Every structure is written in C-alpha cells, then in structure tokens.
Amino acid sequence: MHAWPASEVPALPGKGRDLRIHDTATGGRVTLAPGPVARIYVCGITPYDATHMGHAATYNAFDLVQRVWLDTKRQVHYVQNVTDVDDPLLERALRDGIDWVGLAERETALFREDMTALRMLPPQHYIGAVEAIPGIVPLVERLRDSGAAYELDGDIYFSVEADPHFGQVSNYDTELMRHLSAERGGDPDRPGKKNPLDPMLWMAAREGEPSWDGGSLGPGRPGWHIECVAIALDHLGMGFDVQGGGSDLIFPHHEMGASHAQTLTGEFPMAKAYVHAGMVALDGEKMSKSKGNLVFVSTLRKEGVDPAAIRLALLSHHYRADWEWTDQVLQDAEARLGRWRAAVSRPDGPSADALVEEIREALADDLDAPAALTAVDRWAARQEADGGTEESAPGLVSRAVDALLGVAL
C-alpha cells in the first residue's frame, strides 16, 4: 500500500531541541533523544468514513513530532497502518450494500488526499492489515505454542497473564479495563475465556465474512491488536521511540499491543513513550463515526476552506487537550492565516531569529503549538504596527512556519 506525497520541509538555520513529551505509561514528561534515526509508529484509520477532525487532530500531533525531530537534523522512520479489514468496516459495507474492499479503498484514497492537502508528512511504510497477514500468522502461532495464547471454539486468544507488564501502559484498574474492552471491540463476557480481558488474536472464519489462510490456525482473520504489533516489529523493532494515536487507543489497543510484543520478544518496553492526542467534540459530544457527528476535512475543502486554515485550527489547541470544533474555531484560524500572510508579504520586517527559537522551544515543550502560534502572532503584530528593516525576516518566518508547523504561507 502506498502513502501520499511528501511536501518539502524547508531547512532552517541552527538546530532544534530534543523533544520533551508526555508519556501515558509514566504519567509524566520524558525527554526523547533518539539516535540518528528516530522511530515512530502511529495507528492509522479503519477506512469506512474518513477523514474527520478527530483523525486530523491526531495525525497533526504526530506530524509535529516528525517536524521537531527533522529540525534536530535526524532522520525519521515513520510507520502507519490501515485497518482495512475489521468488524466496523464490514458492518458499514453491509449497511450500505457495497463491497467492503471497495469501501476501504475509497476511504483510504480520500484519507491520502486529505493528508496531502494538510501537508502531513507521510510514513515511510504505510501497511494494510490484509497485506500484513502473512507476517501476523507466525506471531500468533508462536504465542499459542509458547502457552501465551489458547484456543476457544476455533478462535485464538492472548492470555494477558502471560505478560508481567500488562497494565503498565494505561495504568487503569480492572473495572475500567473491562468496561472499555466491552465498549471498544472486546468481548469480556464471552464464556470460556481464561480472563475476561483476554483479546482475540485470530478469529476463525465466519460464514459470509472474508477469511485468509492461517496455516495451523485454520482459515480466519487477525485480531486488531496483533495487526499493529506485526507491522511495528517488522519495520521498527522493539524499543522504538514513540507509539502514537488518539487517547481512545490507550486501552485496549496500545495496552494489548504492548503485551503482545513484550511476550513475543521478552523485551520491555515496546515503545519508549506512549503518546496520545485528545478527542475532538461537536455539539458537546466526542466526534465519532458511531455517533455520526462528524466534520470532514474533505467537506471543508470542497466548500473552499483553505487547508492551511484547517491546520491552524488544529494547531490552536494543545494536542493532549479535548476540545470542541465550532465555526468560530475555523473563523479564528482563517483570520490568523490572513494576518500571517499579510505580514510575510512585505519586503522586510522585524528580526525573526528570536521567533524561530521561540517556536522551537514551544514545540520541544510537549508540542505546545498554541504557544508557537502566539509567538508568530506577536511577530505579525510588530510587523503590522512598526514594520522592520531586515529583508530576510519575512522569508525566514515563512520558512519556519512551514518547516515547524506545516503551514504554507
């Protein structure tokens, strides 16, 4: 599966700072100092309805992570999956009377278009669950053969008790885990499971549903969590720098994925930092496909909204915050974009060297994009009020905003 084209990232004078970021597992900030190549895995979409503002906010956060690392003169090895076979996708295709493969391909293509328009840097490896199945089957067989997984009516389940570190990503109590498992695709009430929290690794073939050759597992399809584990281990290995996604993936997805990987390899932890973006709401409720209260990037683009304004609207909220999308949020972003473009259109302006460092420091401090925007606002206000004499300043501001914030002026 191919990703989308990369926009050019301008080079800036000097060098950025190492990223200090909130780690869900420890509950505090950690300073990430990767080697020459920083490694990040971000969980991708289930392509049955893309791309809403919740998606866009999440991928914007991890785009900033990439940009901070690139500014430190590192390379970035970024991997993202597409869950192109799963119950929600099959249910949507059945509801709409369309082929599930065609639905997945259509929505994935739309997602690529939206990511390109928003100037999100693409992953080096963009892997669908279906194409990963040949690598998933051996992992499930290894877990089963080692006693870390068991069969129940043809399905294969992972035993959470096989991982002594289970629970150390979310740090949730058992009651909350069970509630979230039931809410987010698990089956804690299924009779015969060793532990209600045990997640499915391999679902035996069901009549009327797609299935693949599972070797000794029999025909079926993979569970949600093992999909990402197989892709991450194949392309990044253990101990990569950041595991990212929305906060609704903390449990069960990232918790279970970490346990799968740690049990398979005997190494801990799977990732050096577990980083999660907040949820975006509309009309007081979390924006989600199940609720149908979605604002789509593609719809706004068709209405003539500048993608740079959409990106500024996302950047105006801290990535970990839960916030609400409103018309005012977009109007404020459009006004800000206009002020910035007017400011950099002049032939000269106030010195911008300090501004570049302010943006760098804000982003290095747990991706504080709102603080970075405020710094640019101050420079634009000085430009409007007094101007300046440095011919290079407007161009430097334009390059810095593009390189570090992904906004083309």
Task: Please give the structural blueprint.
Layout: E1 19-23, E2 28-32, E3 37-42, H1 53-71, E4 75-82, H2 87-96, H3 100-117, E5 125-128, H4 129-145, E6 149-152, E7 155-158, H5 174-183, E8 200-204, E9 220-222, H6 224-235, E10 240-246, H7 250-265, E11 271-277, E12 280-282, E13 285-286, H8 297-302, H9 307-315, E14 323-324, H10 327-344, H11 353-364, H12 369-385, H13 393-405
Helix pairs in contact: 4-6, 6-7, 9-10, 10-12, 11-12, 11-13
If you had to describe this structure to a student in words, what would you say it looks like?
With 409 residues, the protein is an alpha/beta fold. The model has no long low-confidence stretch (mean pLDDT 96). The protein is globular. The chain has 13 helices and 14 strands. Helices cover 43% and strands 16% of the residues. It has two domains: 19-292, Rossmann fold; 298-405, Anticodon-binding domain of a subclass of class I aminoacyl-tRNA synthetases (Four Helix Bundle (Hemerythrin (Met), subunit A)), CATH 1.20.120.640. It has helices spanning 53-71, 87-96, 100-117, 129-145, 174-183, 224-235, 250-265, 297-302, 307-315, 327-344, 353-364, 369-385, 393-405; strands at 19-23, 28-32, 37-42, 75-82, 125-128, 149-152, 155-158, 200-204, 220-222, 240-246, 271-277, 280-282, 285-286, 323-324. Strand 12 and strand 13 form a beta hairpin. The strands form four sheets. A five-stranded parallel sheet has the order 5-4-3-10-11, with helices on both faces. The longest helix is centred in the first third of the chain and has 19 residues, at 53-71. The relative contact order is 0.16.
